[in-house]
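[recover] target loaded
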């Protein structure tokens, strides 16, 4: 049966207090219809409260769907659960695309929601990292063109010294905290990523354990002045990676779209994998393809609506 996730408020988005929640492989987001004004209707400190899993709704981030600019259908802004604003968000783009399809197919007249019929299944979305495009496939999965990966140290940004002639930081030994060394490959997917390959099972091989290592890498400002998302990667085969993600501003998450892309790109760059990878994350699998012909990274995976509600506590 058809249900409209995003009952479009008439006058003032915030007044309606409505939200929906989506997740992409357990990476969960509160999504807000913010199409009536051009700044997010909630503040960064509101986002911290909304994302709190005990005192709020609970989510890894808040996504705002704003009017498009620069030739895009919509603009995406996102706040992490700590209130910081990242440039990009891969799982978030998939969730946003599904949200937009529902938003566009519904209209509310005198409180009655009517279905207008499907209008579009492909979106050009403006983000703080530029344009991404998302296509919703028949089975409901969303394919996102994430653009080209960034390797130039200064553009990621990382202060680590480039190890290749074209300015990339690949498999570099870094002392991220006293006595703790990791071999890091730095990749930009709009947002910054530090990829660490591990020789063995992720639960037993990451030293110190993931919950300690993750925040150490995230907050190593001497190497990553804007902090960083950390991926620990076990190579299962040339087409299959197993990844734990510690997200900047959100901590341990069940999945990360940009992180899956960064892991695949780093694995290809270091000769560990081929350009087509299944990336297994705690929340499930994403498909990543780093296309040779145009250097763009394509990611596909699910995005699911889980509930809609009204915010009553801010
Ligand atoms: O760069 C950051 O601060 C990330 N926490 C942004 C969110 C990334 C995300 N998990 C993804 O899927 O790319 C949403």
């Amino acid at each position: 049966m058809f249900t409209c996730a995003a009952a479009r408020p008439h006058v003032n988005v915030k007044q309606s207090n409505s939200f929906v929640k989506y997740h992409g492989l357990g990476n969960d987001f509160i999504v807000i219809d913010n199409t009536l004004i051009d700044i997010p209707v909630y503040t960064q400190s509101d986002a911290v409260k909304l994302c709190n899993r005990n005192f709020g709704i609970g989510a890894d981030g808040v996504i705002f769907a704003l009017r498009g600019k620069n030739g895009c259908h919509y603009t995406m802004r996102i706040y992490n659960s700590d209130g910081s604003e990242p440039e990009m968000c891969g799982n978030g783009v998939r969730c946003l695309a599904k949200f937009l399809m529902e938003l566009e197919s519904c209209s509310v007249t005198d409180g009655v929601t009517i279905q207008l019929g499907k209008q579009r299944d492909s979106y050009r979305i403006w983000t703080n990292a530029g344009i991404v495009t998302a296509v919703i496939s028949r089975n409901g999965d969303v394919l996102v063109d994430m653009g080209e990966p960034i390797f130039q140290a200064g553009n990621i940004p990382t202060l680590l010294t480039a190890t290749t002639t074209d300015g990339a930081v690949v498999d570099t030994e870094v002392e991220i905290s006293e006595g703790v060394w990791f071999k890091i490959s730095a990749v930009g997917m709009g947002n910054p990523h530090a990829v660490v390959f591990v020789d063995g099972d992720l639960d037993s091989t990451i030293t110190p354990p993931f919950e300690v290592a993750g925040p150490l890498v995230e907050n190593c400002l001497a190497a990553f002045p804007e902090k960083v998302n950390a991926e620990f990667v076990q190579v299962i085969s040339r087409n299959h990676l197993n990844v734990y993600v510690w997200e900047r501003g959100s901590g341990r998450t069940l999945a990360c779209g940009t992180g899956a892309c960064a892991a695949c790109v780093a694995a290809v760059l270091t000769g560990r994998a081929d350009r087509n990878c299944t990336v297994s994350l705690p929340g499930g699998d994403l498909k990543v393809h780093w296309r040779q012909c145009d250097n763009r990274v394509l990611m596909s995976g699910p995005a699911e609506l889980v509930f809609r509600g009204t915010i009553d506590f801010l």
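[recover] notes: Confidence is low (pLDDT under 50) at residues 1-15.
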